[in-house]
Amino acid sequence: MLSLRGMPSRTGAMLPGLAVAGVAVAVGFAVHELASGVSALTVSLVLGVLLGNSGLLPTYTDAGLKFASRHLLRAGIVLLGLQLSLREVAHLGGKGFVAVIAVVAITFFGTQFIAQWLRVSPGLGLLTATGYSICGVSAVSAMTGAVDGDEEDATYAIALVTLFGSVSIFMLPIIGHLFDMGNVRFGLWAGSAVHDVAQVVATSTAYSPESLKGAVIVKLTRVMLLAPLVAMYAYNHRRVSAKQEPHSHEQRVSPLPMFIVLFLVMVCVRTTDVLSADVLSWSKNIEKILLALALVGLGASVKFSKLRILGARPLLLGVFSWLLVMGTSLATIRLIPLDF
């Protein structure tokens, strides 16, 4: 029998932290069942932060929580690939694809420029840019895993995309009705401007059920760009690490992290339509659970005392980046034909 005090094995050392994360995730999904508008992932993150700052977690939970924040995170990103199909991306056509790339590129590099202007750390700027331009929490998590990002930066970036994505759910439909955008055009705007997939669904359906199809197709096209973007930064991170430690095992630089390779494999599998709807639904549930466990681990690593040092500048970064992605997407979606 494994002893919590002795920790005789690596597996045994991780069990207490994983158990804590599991309980927090169970609470998160229970809250989501009671209030469907509240994301189980967000609740998991918040519970992780509260636990990490409560002083109640013993040190022997650290190993399991760290394992969740790194390895379970990457496993969740791999399963995310099963929700994406290359056929859906093809529906947009050439101009539509260019429009989505423009939104992603301008938001990604523009957010990092804003972060530099506000004198926010480059790490926080990169993770916030990734979340705003691609797919919210999942994108922040993927980039964090690829470049060994700072966990506090990751948590703050997740907080920003969650906050302003939630604001979008209420604000964008009001703006859409004010300017009488129409169902299809609004769906395209929601899909290109809102961060998280669930937030996109909520925003588009809040305007009109007919807005959902276009919103989801545009959003999934943005998500497809996650792999090349993360791969590029992961390759650069490993190359720099190899130069700094020329005798380490990182000297031979792999162009892609393995979890990104597997993510792409899952996208290809999904495109073939060989998997049943039940399997896809099951994998989506597992993906959510893995990401929720990872967010508990990320949240537990954050200390309020350190976050207070950041001040108001990260919040300003979130505001300016939100305005940037909304404005850019509103301008570029006019390239997408309404009859796609």
Question: What would you note in describing this structure?
Answer:
It is a single chain. The protein is mostly helical. It has one domain (12-335). 76% of the residues lie in helices and 0% in strands. The protein has 16 helices and no strands. The chain is globular, with a radius of gyration of 20 Å.
Provide the helix percentage: over 70%
**SSE ordering:** HHHHHHHHHHHHHHHH
Biggest sheet architecture = none
Q: Based on DSSP secondary structure assignment, what is the total number of beta strands? A: 0
Low-confidence stretches: 248-255
Structural class: mainly alpha
Q: Summarize model confidence as the mean pLDDT.
A: 82
Alpha plus pi helix count? 16
Percent in strands:
under 5%
* N-to-C span: 60 Å
Spatial extent as radius of gyration: 20 Å
Gross morphology: globular
Domain count: the total is: 1
Comma- or semicolon-separated keywords:
0% strand; 16 helices; globular; single chain; mainly alpha; 340 residues
Architecture blueprint of SSEs:
Elements: H1 10-34, H2 40-54, H3 62-80, H4 86-90, H5 93-117, H6 122-135, H7 137-147, H8 151-178, H9 183-193, H10 197-207, H11 212-224, H12 226-244, H13 258-271, H14 277-300, H15 304-307, H16 313-332
